[in-house]
Amino acid sequence: MIEVAGLTKTYGRVRAVDDLSFVVRPGRVTGFLGPNGAGKSTTMRLILGLDTPTAGTATVGGRRYRDLERPLTRVGALLDAKWVHPNRTARNHLRWMAAANGIPSERVDVCLALVGLSEVAHKRAGGFSLGMSQRLGLAAALLGDPGVLLFDEPVNGLDPEGIVWVRGFMKSLAAQGHTVLVSSHLLSEMALTADDVVIVGRGRLVWHGAMADFIAQHSESSVRVRSPRAEELSRALALRGVAVAATGEPGVLTVTGVSTDVVGDIAAAAGIVVHELAGRTTSLEEAFMRLTAGAVEYHGGMVA
Questions:
Q1: What is the model's pTM?
Q2: Which of 55, 168, 200, 291 has the fewest CB neighbours in a 10 Å radius?
Q3: Parallel, antiparallel, or unpaired: how do β-strands 75-78 and 148-152 relate?
């Protein structure tokens, strides 16, 4: 378990993390989300003892990282996929890490096989693509078979097959009882991967809880309906107190507050032909954008 309590980190006048508190539970994948500059990477560095907090605590299993014995066997992390000596082979990179942490050398080849790098284990890491480097970073994180794992943008550089593999891999780790905290900007992927979610903005906690609860509380449902008699249908719906909006697309309406069944029943009762009737629920991305709109540090503009 990871516990963050009142965690604060300032750099001069900048408060990168601001009184942040949350818990990451074992047996679940927890997505760590937020706009650029929200403090996600800083928080992970504080958990791993790479930075010293200005205030508050971050513990793993009730202890600070620096107090753990043989920490690689307790916590595994992937923060920077390119953090590897370029002239070392993939196998030798893991071998020195294993030797330094008292981990049997046999574990090296096990981890290389887990991440699909057995065939390139003899190649120098400096020649790896970003996707291969990500896989090597995952292998390093798993080397000590730790109960707690932290991943910062682990699917960067991976092809679609690799992304799907990482998704299943993280889910399998959680199913085995591991505590998994993963930061990512791929919100659609997090919706498929994470059981819980921690959302931060400008260093502060914005939301913390189950992913399903977040989507249920912050999503909106609507119905798209297309009919050659859209104006008549709009009037029939309005008479029943249903909110209707034109989409700008000929013959198409957007209906909110009711289900597709209700819209279909009203259309049928009025004898109005419907060519399309589809329900839609706000995506995680849309819900996230609404919730963090005030915490985005940098806003892009449109090309003139």
A1: 0.80
A2: 168
A3: parallel
